[in-house]
Amino acid sequence: MTTRRVTLADVARKAGVSRATASFVMGGRSDMRISAATQARVLRVAQDLGYRPNLTARGLRTSVTRTIGLVSDTIATAQYAGEVIHGGLDAALANDHLLLIAESAGDRHVEERLLEGMLDRQVDGIVYGAMYTRVVEPPRSLLGRPVVLLNCLAEGFPAPSVIPDEEAAGRTAAQALLDAGHRDAIYVVGGHHVTSRTPDGVFAGRERMSGIEHALRRAGVAPARVIECAWAVEQGYEEVRALLAGGHRPQAIIGCNDRVSFGACQALQEAGLDVPGDVSVVSFDDSGLASWARPQLTSIALPHYQLGRTAVELLIGGRLEPVVHRIPMPLRVRASLARRTHR
Amino acid sequence: MTTRRVTLADVARKAGVSRATASFVMGGRSDMRISAATQARVLRVAQDLGYRPNLTARGLRTSVTRTIGLVSDTIATAQYAGEVIHGGLDAALANDHLLLIAESAGDRHVEERLLEGMLDRQVDGIVYGAMYTRVVEPPRSLLGRPVVLLNCLAEGFPAPSVIPDEEAAGRTAAQALLDAGHRDAIYVVGGHHVTSRTPDGVFAGRERMSGIEHALRRAGVAPARVIECAWAVEQGYEEVRALLAGGHRPQAIIGCNDRVSFGACQALQEAGLDVPGDVSVVSFDDSGLASWARPQLTSIALPHYQLGRTAVELLIGGRLEPVVHRIPMPLRVRASLARRTHR
DNA sequence: GTGAAAGCGCTAACAC
DNA sequence: GTGTTAGCGCTTTCAC
C-alpha cells in the first residue's frame, strides 16, 4: 500500500480555503494580500500534512523546473571532475536547484541524446563543460537557450565561458621561483603539451608558457631550457634523466603539470639530487599527486570547485552575457620549493 | 523571440488525427491497432516538425519521469566517485533515463533536503550511496520507495545493496603472492584501518584482512607480521621504515590500500631495497597512485564503475529484493610483484 | 481578501 | 481503427 502524496488541494480543503488561496500562501506572494490569520492557518495545515509541492506539476504549469543540466565530455576520467560537480552542486543547492549530470565521453551522438533528454525534462538551462580547457563547438540545438560554457570556449556561440586563468598561473609559478631567489639554471619541462592528438599544444600549455616567459622576461631572466614533451610521469622522468645525463645541473624546474613534475622529481632523486635542497620544483594542477609526492609539490591549483560553482551561479543568476570569466589559480606552497641565497 | 516547442497536438493536427491517436503512435502501442498508413504519417510528421515529448507533462500524467536520483555522502573527495557516476550514467543512458546527482557532504540535513528535492521532482527511484563501504542508516522518508544502496549496507532497511567483494579481494591478494612462490617473510601493512574516527576499523579492512588470513592459512602460511596503522602514505612509509630499522627483512608486503603501499615502497627504496627484486608488493584499490608509482603497483581494483552501473540497473530493472550483491574486485597485475624461487 | 475556472502537454478510459 | 473526454497538480487571470 502506497499512501498518496498530499496535494495542495488537500491543504486547501483542510484549511478551509480555495486552492488558489493556498497556492498564493505557499508561493509567498504578498501582492494578493491574504489575511495574516488565513496565511498562518494554511502554512500550519501544510506543515501538519507534510505537504510538498509537486515540482513536475509546477514545471508543467510555469515551465520552470529549478533543475539544470550539466553535461561534459568526461566526468570519470578527469582527475577532479568531482570538484567541478561539487562546486556546481553547492551553487545549485544554495539556490534550491538540482542538477541533472551526464557525460558524453566525447561522442557527439551521445551528447545530443543527453541534451535532448535534459531539454525534454524542461531543464532551466545547460552547463556545457569540457574536462580540460579547450575550444568546443556546442550543438546548434543549444542556441537561444540559457547556456554557460564550463572550462571551454566556443567561437560564435553567444554564451559566457568560465575558465581557469592559466596565463596568470604561469606568471605565478615563475614569480614564486623569482621570489625565492632563483635566477639561474631554471628549466621548464612540459612546454605546450604537443602530442600526436594535440599538434598545436593545449590551451593550458600555451597560456602557462606565455605567463612563465612573460614573468621571467620582465625580471630579466631567461630559462636555461624549455623542454617540450607530453605531460606524463614517464616523459617528465625521461626528459630530466636525459638532461642530467647530458651534464645539465638545474637549480629549479617548472613542471608544466603535476605528472611531469612528479616524474622529474623521480629522475632527480634517482641521480642523488635533493628536492628542494639542490633543485626547487614548481608545478601546476595541484592534483592528488602533488601532495602524495615526497617532498610534496608546490603547485598552482586548478580551481575546479570555483569553476563549477561559478558556472552554475551565472546560469541561475541569468548573467548570460557572452563574457569570458577567468578564475584565479591559487599557489599552494609546499616543500618542493626552497629559497636560494646568491653567493 | 523564442519559438514555441512543438506539441503532440501540433503533430496530431498536421497529421489529421486526434491527439489520442498520435499519442498511441508515439508511444508505440500495438494494442490499439492503428492502420500502418496512419502510423507512418504520424511518425513522419513528428519527425518533420522535430517533435519531442514533454517529459514533465508525461510525468505529471503517468508519474513516471525516467529520472533517478543518486545521492551520496561525498562525490568530490572520493578518489573515483567519477567512476561510480560513469557506471550509473551508462546504465541510465542505456535505459533512456537520466540521473539527478547530488552529495550531502555527510550532513543529515543537507541529505534530507536533497532527497526531498528529488522526490518533489518525482524521481522513479533513489540510489543511496556512500563513498567508502560501510553501514548506513537511510532516512525513513525513503522507506517504501524504490531504493538501491550503493557501496553501503543498512540494517532493517529492505533494499538491495551493491558492494565490492572485499573478502574475495583479500584472498586474491594473498593468492597472488602464494602463486608467485612467496611463503616466508610476508608482512601485511594497514590492517583494519583503525583510527580515532574508526575505532573498529572499516568494513574493507575487516574483510580484506579476513580474506588474506584465510587464504594464507589454507596454504599453511602465516604472515610474519600484521601491522595495524591508518591507511595513509605517511603511515605506510613510517611503519615500514621502523620495521627495517628493527632488523626485519620482508620478502613481500601486502599494503592494505595504495596509499599505504606507496608509502611502503618509498621506505623500501630509501633503504636501498629493490621492488620487486628484493621485496614484492601487492596492494588494494588500484587508484591512480598504483600506476603512478614506480614500479607500478600490482593492485586489487575497487570496481567503482560496476558498482554504479549495477546499482542503477537494479533500480531501473525493479529488482529490489533486499539482497547483498557482491561485485568482484579484479587483480591488476603490474611490476611490483615478482616470482620467488625457493632455494 | 477570496473563489471559480481555465489550461500547461500528456495519457488512458470509453464510446463510436 | 479513431475520436471524445477527463484529469494528473499546479498557477493565475478575473470576477466577486
Question: How many DSSP-defined strands of chain A?
Answer: 12
Number of distinct helices of chain A: 12
- Gyration radius over CA of chain A: 27 Å
| Low-pLDDT windows of residues of chain A | none
Tell me which protein chains meet in the greatest interface and how many residues each side has. A-B, 52 and 53 residues
Strand order of the largest sheet of chain A: 2-1-3-4-5-11
Helix content of chain A: 40-55%
Describe this structure in words.
The structure is a homodimer of 343-residue chains. With 343 residues, chain A is α/β, with parallel strands linked by helices. Helix content of chain A is 41%, strand content 18%. Chain A is built from 12 helices and 12 strands. Chain A has a 6-stranded parallel beta sheet with strand order 2-1-3-4-5-11, with helices on both faces. In chain A, strands 7-6-8-9-10-12 form a 6-stranded mixed beta sheet, sandwiched between helices. In chain A, helix 1 (8-15) crosses helix 2. The radius of gyration of chain A is 27 Å and the shape is elongated. Chains A and B meet through helix 4, helix 5, strand 2, helix 6 and helix 10 of A and helix 4, helix 5, strand 2, helix 6 and helix 10 of B. Chain A binds a DNA duplex (16 and 16 nucleotides) through residues 5, 7-9, 17-21, 23-24, 27, 32-35, 38, 53-63.
